[in-house]
Please model this.
Amino acid sequence: MFPEAFIRMLPEAIGPERVQTVLDALSADPSVSIRLNPSKLGACPFPDGERIPWSPYGYLLKERPNFTLDPLFHAGCYYVQDSSAMFVGELFRQVLPSVGPGVTVLDLCAAPGGKTTDLAASLRERFGDGFSLLANEVMRSRFGVLRSNVRTWGDPRVGVVSRDPSVFSGKPVFDIVVADVPCSGEGMFRKDGKAVADWSPETVDFCAARSRRILSDVWSALKPGGILLYSTCTFNRQENDGTVAWIASGLGADILDCGDFPPVIRTEHGYALLPGYVPGEGQYAAALRKHGEPESVRTADVFSLFKADLPVPPPDPYPTFDLDRETALRYLHGDAISIPDAPAGMLTLTYEGHPLGPGKNLGRRCNNLYPKDRRIRMDIR
Model:
């Protein structure tokens, strides 16, 4: 099922005593988890939700609901994200006390938006509106998904751009850079058959070299004394601890000790989440502080500097009207709906008080103005 070279590599990567447990887990069904949007939802909407230890907003579910048919999902009340991927958000919360209001954050390789929305929730809880989070995705084919997910999440202090990492080089303007770099994807083998088919030792070499180029390109954009959070969804040392050691010695940084998070495994320079030891997929993360003394300089307007798309508009002046579940799903599907009890004219249509989108009520019918690119495409009956 897995490449022989991958199996030979595993003992060095994760320890020989863990190999069989991980291989067995990679052959099992994946887990399902969600992360709440604390600005919109205070409790898990699924009764079987079990708290994830390293996320104040994360819940592991016993089975996979049909998220597409849940209006709360479309309202941005929660994000479907692997529980292991949420660990990067926990490291982010660990380093936040070292920065203050006005903090600028770059999520460098942000699509589809899971880590971006996790960072946004923590920044909003700590600083209110006193932060700027710039989410970047260089691949235009993935940028649209990022933009849509950021818009659905609904935080006005999150901007999105599609730039090559080299564009950010130059003036140091970011207090924190989060780099969840493209990798060989070993930790995603049970979810992504293509990752298995594409894997080879040469792929590992290529990904490690690409990660180091990306980090070299963006390094000058990180302020002296700033924090880099580095992460992958792979196991091998070359892309994980090896790259962190290279950052520390080659670019100039101190590797940070953020404490223990059982059952997360401490590695030489970071943290590994291994299937079979945690319910989610494979994840690696580490934190580093760039050499140099922090400077007391005016916070840059990174949204203007990099011409960010701010996908969340100002609050609209339209009256709201709450839809029942059936009508909400028909609206999200793009169907014509009738809401005769609603006032005439432009409305913000909601579900359980959470905005879904606009509509124009004409009395006998309501014109459906839900964006076409976000409509449900499956049968909603």
Observations:
- The radius of gyration is 22 Å.
